[in-house]
Amino acid sequence: MSADDLFAELEQQTGLSLPDDVETLTGQAFTLSLGGDFDVETMSNSADGSDVPIGYKVQGDPTAIEGVLDKIRPQLAGQDAVLTSTTKGDVVAVGPNAAYRDELAAGGGLGDTSIFRDVVPHADNASMILFLDFDGPSNWLAELAKSDPEARGNIEPLSALGISSWQDGDTAHSLVRLTTD
């Protein structure tokens, strides 16, 4: 099966125009985010996700982004609340938690924290960033390992992970930083 055949089949099944709709949903920049008070147990037990601080933020053409989301929502069979959106300027924040969507749409904050700056020192020039705050308000990573004391003991000293890449002229750079308490 060729790539064109695959795209045609996916378009027929989803109603999306590929790859154009994927490009619309990634916009000029996008972020997948979990709030600092994210809790795995809450997510597992949530009926509709409205109490889970998780979201997707994309900078681009809000009208086009909403158009693609409108193609996807009907296919979610009653679970379309996960694609509820909030728009502010050229940013669309998508997720089930209204307060967290508003926070994402407003922007700012993370890049101003010392823990982020420590592990992602070239954020302003980065074309890709992965950031994990292992401690956070709920010490989520250690909580995941609560049933394994040895694993929890190994995880607890971890503070944050930053992975970034950026271009400087003809030179590509990548940096992985892991910090501990």
Describe the protein in words.
A hairpin with a 2-residue loop joins strand 3 (85-88) and strand 4. The chain is globular and about 50 Å long. The protein has helices spanning 3-14, 20-26, 40-45, 62-72, 98-106, 114-119, 140-144, 149-155; strands at 29-34, 54-59, 85-88, 91-94, 126-133, 158-168, 171-180. With 181 residues, the chain is α+β, with helices and mostly antiparallel strands. A four-stranded antiparallel sheet has the order 1-2-4-3, with helices on both faces.
**What's the total helix number?**
8
Number of strands: 7
Biggest sheet, strands in spatial order?
Answer: 1-2-4-3
- Helical proportion? 25-40%
Largest sheet: 4 strands, antiparallel
Rounded radius of gyration (Å): 19 Å
Q: Spell out the helices and strands N to C.
A: HHEHEHEEHHEHHEE
Q: Kindly, what is the distance between the CA atoms of the first and last residues, rounded to a whole number of angstroms?
A: 51 Å
Could you tell me the mean pLDDT? 86
Overall structural class, as computed from helix and strand content, comes to alpha+beta
Strand content: 25-35%
Shape verdict: globular
Q: Which residue ranges are poorly predicted, with pLDDT under 50 across at least 5 consecutive positions? A: none
